[in-house]
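Structure ticket #2291
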Amino acid sequence: MTTNTNATTPTQGTVLERSCMLVKLKRHKFNHNVTDKKLGKKYRKELKVKRGTNAVRVQKTIIPREAIQPWNKILNEAGKYFYSVTIPWDDKSWRLLPVVKYKEFVNNFRDFQARFTEAVDDFVNNIDRHIKDGKEMLGLAYDESDYMDKKAVRGEFLLKVEYEQLKAASDFRAQVTEEERQEIAEIITQQNEERFAQAQASVFQRVFTVAQKLSEKMAEKPGKGKTTPEFRDSIIGNIQDLVDILPSLNVVNDPNLKLLKDQLESQLSSIDPQDLRECDRLREDTKEKADDIMNKAASFMGSLPDSD
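Resolution: structure written out below.
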Protein backbone atom coordinates (compact mmCIF):
# COMPACT_ATOMS: atom_id res chain seq x y z
CA MET A 1 0.00 0.00 0.00
CA THR A 2 1.49 3.35 -1.00
CA THR A 3 1.95 6.21 1.42
CA ASN A 4 0.23 9.51 0.80
CA THR A 5 2.78 12.31 0.84
CA ASN A 6 0.31 15.15 1.44
CA ALA A 7 0.13 15.20 5.23
CA THR A 8 -3.47 14.47 6.14
CA THR A 9 -2.32 12.44 9.15
CA PRO A 10 -1.84 14.74 12.19
CA THR A 11 1.79 15.63 12.85
CA GLN A 12 2.77 14.14 16.22
CA GLY A 13 -0.92 13.64 16.89
CA THR A 14 -1.47 17.27 17.91
CA VAL A 15 -4.40 17.94 15.57
CA LEU A 16 -6.03 14.69 16.55
CA GLU A 17 -5.65 15.36 20.28
CA ARG A 18 -7.27 18.78 19.92
CA SER A 19 -10.04 17.62 17.61
CA CYS A 20 -11.21 14.32 19.11
CA MET A 21 -11.96 12.48 22.31
CA LEU A 22 -12.49 8.80 23.03
CA VAL A 23 -15.92 7.33 23.77
CA LYS A 24 -17.13 3.81 24.49
CA LEU A 25 -20.75 2.62 24.34
CA LYS A 26 -21.87 0.18 27.02
CA ARG A 27 -25.20 -1.60 26.51
CA HIS A 28 -26.82 -4.53 28.26
CA LYS A 29 -30.34 -5.85 28.33
CA PHE A 30 -32.57 -8.47 29.83
CA ASN A 31 -32.33 -11.69 27.80
CA HIS A 32 -35.83 -12.79 26.85
CA ASN A 33 -34.51 -15.86 24.99
CA VAL A 34 -33.24 -18.97 26.79
CA THR A 35 -31.98 -22.36 25.69
CA ASP A 36 -34.02 -25.21 27.16
CA LYS A 37 -31.56 -28.06 27.77
CA LYS A 38 -34.29 -30.45 28.93
CA LEU A 39 -36.36 -30.04 25.78
CA GLY A 40 -33.23 -30.16 23.66
CA LYS A 41 -32.25 -33.49 25.22
CA LYS A 42 -35.80 -34.80 24.73
CA TYR A 43 -35.92 -33.92 21.05
CA ARG A 44 -32.41 -35.23 20.39
CA LYS A 45 -33.57 -38.54 21.81
CA GLU A 46 -36.84 -38.57 19.85
CA LEU A 47 -35.10 -37.65 16.62
CA LYS A 48 -32.35 -40.18 17.30
CA VAL A 49 -29.63 -37.57 16.94
CA LYS A 50 -26.15 -38.97 17.52
CA ARG A 51 -25.36 -39.03 21.21
CA GLY A 52 -23.09 -36.31 22.51
CA THR A 53 -23.91 -33.74 19.83
CA ASN A 54 -25.71 -30.44 20.27
CA ALA A 55 -27.03 -30.42 16.71
CA VAL A 56 -30.56 -29.93 18.08
CA ARG A 57 -31.18 -27.09 20.48
CA VAL A 58 -34.42 -25.61 21.74
CA GLN A 59 -34.50 -21.86 22.25
CA LYS A 60 -37.53 -20.28 23.86
CA THR A 61 -38.81 -16.73 23.98
CA ILE A 62 -39.93 -16.47 27.60
CA ILE A 63 -41.33 -12.94 27.43
CA PRO A 64 -43.60 -11.80 24.56
CA ARG A 65 -41.69 -9.76 22.01
CA GLU A 66 -44.12 -6.85 22.22
CA ALA A 67 -43.18 -6.43 25.90
CA ILE A 68 -39.49 -5.90 25.16
CA GLN A 69 -39.99 -3.78 22.06
CA PRO A 70 -40.04 -0.31 23.72
CA TRP A 71 -36.66 -0.52 25.47
CA ASN A 72 -35.09 -2.69 22.77
CA LYS A 73 -35.97 -0.11 20.12
CA ILE A 74 -34.29 2.64 22.14
CA LEU A 75 -31.12 0.56 22.60
CA ASN A 76 -30.95 0.00 18.85
CA GLU A 77 -31.54 3.69 18.11
CA ALA A 78 -28.83 4.70 20.58
CA GLY A 79 -26.36 2.26 19.05
CA LYS A 80 -27.11 3.38 15.51
CA TYR A 81 -26.60 7.02 16.48
CA PHE A 82 -23.40 6.29 18.43
CA TYR A 83 -21.74 4.46 15.54
CA SER A 84 -22.87 7.04 12.99
CA VAL A 85 -21.12 9.98 14.69
CA THR A 86 -17.94 8.17 15.79
CA ILE A 87 -15.14 6.31 14.05
CA PRO A 88 -13.19 3.24 15.25
CA TRP A 89 -10.03 3.70 17.27
CA ASP A 90 -8.79 0.50 18.93
CA ASP A 91 -9.71 -3.12 19.60
CA LYS A 92 -11.07 -2.27 23.07
CA SER A 93 -14.23 -0.65 21.64
CA TRP A 94 -13.02 2.92 22.07
CA ARG A 95 -14.06 5.21 19.23
CA LEU A 96 -13.18 8.74 18.18
CA LEU A 97 -15.77 11.45 18.74
CA PRO A 98 -15.07 14.80 17.06
CA VAL A 99 -15.08 17.50 19.72
CA VAL A 100 -17.37 19.65 17.56
CA LYS A 101 -20.08 17.00 18.06
CA TYR A 102 -19.62 16.74 21.83
CA LYS A 103 -22.51 18.92 23.03
CA GLU A 104 -24.94 17.49 20.50
CA PHE A 105 -23.74 13.98 21.34
CA VAL A 106 -24.17 14.42 25.10
CA ASN A 107 -27.62 15.95 24.73
CA ASN A 108 -28.78 13.19 22.42
CA PHE A 109 -27.52 10.49 24.76
CA ARG A 110 -29.19 12.07 27.75
CA ASP A 111 -32.42 11.84 25.78
CA PHE A 112 -31.75 8.18 24.90
CA GLN A 113 -30.99 7.39 28.54
CA ALA A 114 -34.09 9.16 29.85
CA ARG A 115 -36.32 7.33 27.38
CA PHE A 116 -34.56 4.04 28.11
CA THR A 117 -34.99 4.45 31.88
CA GLU A 118 -38.69 5.18 31.44
CA ALA A 119 -39.19 2.13 29.21
CA VAL A 120 -37.24 -0.11 31.62
CA ASP A 121 -39.23 1.15 34.60
CA ASP A 122 -42.47 0.31 32.82
CA PHE A 123 -41.15 -3.15 31.89
CA VAL A 124 -39.95 -3.95 35.41
CA ASN A 125 -43.14 -2.62 37.05
CA ASN A 126 -45.16 -4.97 34.86
CA ILE A 127 -42.83 -7.97 34.98
CA ASP A 128 -45.41 -10.21 36.69
CA ARG A 129 -47.83 -9.67 33.83
CA HIS A 130 -45.10 -10.27 31.25
CA ILE A 131 -44.16 -13.56 32.93
CA LYS A 132 -47.81 -14.58 33.01
CA ASP A 133 -48.16 -13.79 29.31
CA GLY A 134 -45.00 -15.80 28.64
CA LYS A 135 -46.42 -18.77 30.54
CA GLU A 136 -49.62 -18.67 28.47
CA MET A 137 -47.59 -18.35 25.28
CA LEU A 138 -45.25 -21.26 26.07
CA GLY A 139 -47.84 -23.73 27.34
CA LEU A 140 -46.15 -26.99 28.33
CA ALA A 141 -42.75 -25.54 27.44
CA TYR A 142 -43.01 -23.10 30.38
CA ASP A 143 -40.39 -23.62 33.07
CA GLU A 144 -40.29 -21.40 36.13
CA SER A 145 -36.53 -21.86 36.44
CA ASP A 146 -36.05 -19.96 33.14
CA TYR A 147 -36.89 -16.70 34.92
CA MET A 148 -34.46 -14.82 37.16
CA ASP A 149 -35.49 -13.26 40.44
CA LYS A 150 -37.75 -10.31 39.68
CA LYS A 151 -35.62 -7.99 41.83
CA ALA A 152 -32.60 -8.81 39.68
CA VAL A 153 -34.26 -7.91 36.38
CA ARG A 154 -33.54 -4.18 36.65
CA GLY A 155 -29.84 -4.87 37.05
CA GLU A 156 -29.80 -6.48 33.61
CA PHE A 157 -30.26 -3.12 31.89
CA LEU A 158 -27.51 -0.67 31.02
CA LEU A 159 -27.09 2.21 28.60
CA LYS A 160 -24.13 4.54 29.16
CA VAL A 161 -21.18 6.16 27.45
CA GLU A 162 -17.68 6.29 28.89
CA TYR A 163 -15.35 9.15 27.99
CA GLU A 164 -11.56 9.37 27.83
CA GLN A 165 -9.09 11.99 26.73
CA LEU A 166 -6.98 11.02 23.76
CA LYS A 167 -3.53 10.53 25.25
CA ALA A 168 -0.60 12.35 23.70
CA ALA A 169 2.85 10.81 23.43
CA SER A 170 4.11 13.54 25.77
CA ASP A 171 1.86 12.18 28.55
CA PHE A 172 4.19 9.23 29.13
CA ARG A 173 5.54 9.58 32.69
CA ALA A 174 7.38 6.34 33.52
CA GLN A 175 10.78 6.58 35.21
CA VAL A 176 13.03 6.15 32.20
CA THR A 177 15.96 8.00 30.72
CA GLU A 178 15.36 10.93 28.40
CA GLU A 179 16.57 8.87 25.44
CA GLU A 180 14.16 6.06 26.33
CA ARG A 181 11.36 8.57 26.87
CA GLN A 182 11.90 9.99 23.40
CA GLU A 183 11.94 6.52 21.87
CA ILE A 184 8.69 5.57 23.63
CA ALA A 185 7.08 8.87 22.59
CA GLU A 186 7.93 8.12 18.97
CA ILE A 187 6.38 4.65 19.27
CA ILE A 188 3.19 6.06 20.80
CA THR A 189 3.00 8.72 18.09
CA GLN A 190 3.39 6.10 15.39
CA GLN A 191 0.71 3.92 16.97
CA ASN A 192 -1.70 6.87 17.15
CA GLU A 193 -1.05 7.72 13.52
CA GLU A 194 -1.61 4.10 12.44
CA ARG A 195 -4.85 3.96 14.40
CA PHE A 196 -5.96 7.22 12.86
CA ALA A 197 -5.19 5.90 9.38
CA GLN A 198 -7.55 2.99 10.11
CA ALA A 199 -10.17 5.39 11.47
CA GLN A 200 -9.87 7.62 8.40
CA ALA A 201 -10.18 4.59 6.13
CA SER A 202 -13.44 3.64 7.86
CA VAL A 203 -14.91 7.03 6.88
CA PHE A 204 -13.94 6.53 3.25
CA GLN A 205 -15.49 3.06 3.55
CA ARG A 206 -18.80 4.63 4.59
CA VAL A 207 -18.76 6.73 1.44
CA PHE A 208 -17.89 3.70 -0.67
CA THR A 209 -20.69 1.63 0.90
CA VAL A 210 -23.54 4.12 0.36
CA ALA A 211 -22.41 4.73 -3.23
CA GLN A 212 -22.09 1.00 -3.87
CA LYS A 213 -25.59 0.26 -2.58
CA LEU A 214 -27.03 2.96 -4.79
CA SER A 215 -25.09 1.74 -7.81
CA GLU A 216 -26.30 -1.83 -7.30
CA LYS A 217 -29.92 -0.71 -7.00
CA MET A 218 -29.65 1.42 -10.14
CA ALA A 219 -28.48 -1.67 -12.05
CA GLU A 220 -31.44 -3.80 -10.96
CA LYS A 221 -34.30 -4.42 -13.36
CA PRO A 222 -37.99 -4.31 -12.38
CA GLY A 223 -39.22 -7.53 -10.81
CA LYS A 224 -41.61 -9.87 -12.56
CA GLY A 225 -44.92 -8.12 -13.16
CA LYS A 226 -43.43 -4.75 -12.14
CA THR A 227 -42.93 -1.69 -14.32
CA THR A 228 -40.44 0.08 -12.03
CA PRO A 229 -37.52 -1.16 -9.90
CA GLU A 230 -38.20 -1.65 -6.20
CA PHE A 231 -36.01 0.06 -3.61
CA ARG A 232 -36.59 2.05 -0.46
CA ASP A 233 -36.42 5.83 -0.25
CA SER A 234 -33.84 5.33 2.53
CA ILE A 235 -31.19 4.53 -0.08
CA ILE A 236 -31.08 8.29 -0.78
CA GLY A 237 -31.87 9.23 2.82
CA ASN A 238 -28.78 7.33 4.01
CA ILE A 239 -26.63 9.34 1.61
CA GLN A 240 -28.04 12.59 2.99
CA ASP A 241 -27.40 11.40 6.55
CA LEU A 242 -23.77 10.71 5.64
CA VAL A 243 -23.42 14.11 3.95
CA ASP A 244 -24.62 15.74 7.18
CA ILE A 245 -22.12 13.95 9.40
CA LEU A 246 -19.04 13.89 7.12
CA PRO A 247 -17.79 17.41 7.94
CA SER A 248 -17.44 16.56 11.64
CA LEU A 249 -15.78 13.21 10.88
CA ASN A 250 -13.22 14.95 8.70
CA VAL A 251 -11.17 15.97 11.73
CA VAL A 252 -7.99 16.79 9.78
CA ASN A 253 -9.72 18.53 6.85
CA ASP A 254 -8.71 15.88 4.36
CA PRO A 255 -9.37 17.44 0.91
CA ASN A 256 -10.18 14.04 -0.56
CA LEU A 257 -12.92 13.44 1.98
CA LYS A 258 -14.27 16.94 1.38
CA LEU A 259 -14.35 16.24 -2.36
CA LEU A 260 -16.38 13.08 -1.84
CA LYS A 261 -18.76 14.85 0.53
CA ASP A 262 -19.33 17.59 -2.06
CA GLN A 263 -19.96 15.02 -4.79
CA LEU A 264 -22.42 13.08 -2.67
CA GLU A 265 -24.25 16.28 -1.82
CA SER A 266 -24.39 17.81 -5.29
CA GLN A 267 -24.89 14.67 -7.37
CA LEU A 268 -26.82 12.12 -5.29
CA SER A 269 -28.37 13.27 -2.02
CA SER A 270 -31.03 15.54 -3.54
CA ILE A 271 -32.38 13.05 -6.08
CA ASP A 272 -36.04 12.15 -5.68
CA PRO A 273 -36.27 8.34 -5.28
CA GLN A 274 -39.54 8.30 -7.21
CA ASP A 275 -37.86 10.01 -10.17
CA LEU A 276 -35.25 7.24 -10.09
CA ARG A 277 -37.97 4.60 -10.26
CA GLU A 278 -39.66 6.21 -13.23
CA CYS A 279 -36.72 7.29 -15.39
CA ASP A 280 -34.32 4.77 -16.96
CA ARG A 281 -31.94 7.49 -18.13
CA LEU A 282 -31.77 9.04 -14.65
CA ARG A 283 -30.94 5.65 -13.14
CA GLU A 284 -28.14 5.14 -15.67
CA ASP A 285 -26.73 8.61 -14.98
CA THR A 286 -27.01 8.10 -11.23
CA LYS A 287 -25.22 4.76 -11.45
CA GLU A 288 -22.34 6.39 -13.33
CA LYS A 289 -22.02 9.07 -10.66
CA ALA A 290 -22.21 6.53 -7.84
CA ASP A 291 -19.55 4.39 -9.54
CA ASP A 292 -17.28 7.41 -9.89
CA ILE A 293 -17.61 8.17 -6.17
CA MET A 294 -16.99 4.50 -5.32
CA ASN A 295 -13.81 4.44 -7.41
CA LYS A 296 -12.51 7.64 -5.86
CA ALA A 297 -13.25 6.44 -2.34
CA ALA A 298 -11.43 3.16 -3.02
CA SER A 299 -8.49 5.06 -4.49
CA PHE A 300 -8.27 7.45 -1.54
CA MET A 301 -8.39 4.56 0.93
CA GLY A 302 -5.47 3.01 -0.91
CA SER A 303 -3.44 6.21 -0.58
CA LEU A 304 -3.73 6.38 3.22
CA PRO A 305 -0.66 5.44 5.27
CA ASP A 306 -0.37 1.68 5.69
CA SER A 307 -1.76 0.66 9.08
CA ASP A 308 -0.81 -3.01 8.94
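Closing remark: Confidence is low (pLDDT under 50) at residues 1-12.
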